[in-house]
Design goal:
185 residues, mainly beta, Porin
Length: 185
């Protein structure tokens, strides 16, 4: 797809997801193990060779966890899948897909969550001219936190590192700061 078509598609999905989220946030409801959202961010320390990642993701809390009775502390796992767009400063862009588990520490009855994970990722484009990621297979590691603003609305931050773990000759890696907005379904 041409560059403008990719951007239009991502914008359309973000607008549709956002318009679906607003009524659900207002109506409230109980907690669900499913969460869907959008995240975007920026790279740093790249000497003028930056990237803008945009992802749509779907998460599910996994059924096995440990809870501290009466203390509001929970240790658990979740699975996450994401599709996205990685846009370079030079206008080159490519699609991304990732899938993997997260370890989650929930505090204050899961209102505040800390999470860490390693996901397998696939890039449709690995060479952006000024940065060659070596090949299509990558690993995405992240650390983050999220805050449940209402029973359904969640905002979060994650630091993410993408690398191919030296399975290719070139392994420059990519560090991003990402903000996310999601809805517990």
């Amino acid at each position: 797809m041409p560059s403008s078509a990719n951007r239009a598609l991502v914008c359309l999905v973000v607008v549709c997801l956002g318009s679906c989220m607003l009524p659900a946030v207002c109506l409230g409801g109980g907690a669900s193990p499913w969460e869907a959202g959008v995240r975007s961010g920026f790279t740093f320390f790249n000497r003028g060779k930056n990237f803008e990642p945009v992802d749509l993701f779907l998460r599910r809390d996994l059924p096995f966890d440990w809870q501290s009775p009466g203390h509001g502390v929970r240790l658990g796992m979740r699975g996450e899948g994401a599709v996205g767009l990685l846009i370079g400063d030079n206008g080159r862009e490519g699609m991304t897909a990732s899938l993997g588990p997260d370890l989650v520490l929930g505090l204050f009855h899961d209102r505040l969550r800390f999470h860490a994970g390693t996901h397998l990722a696939l890039l449709s484009r690995s060479d952006y001219g000024y940065r060659n990621f070596g090949g299509p297979f990558q690993f995405m590691n992240h650390l983050g936190l999220s805050l449940r603003v209402t029973d359904r609305l969640v905002v979060g931050y994650r630091f993410q590192h993408m690398s191919n773990a030296d399975i290719y000759r070139s392994n420059p890696g990519l560090n991003t700061n990402m903000l996310e907005l999601s809805l517990r379904l």
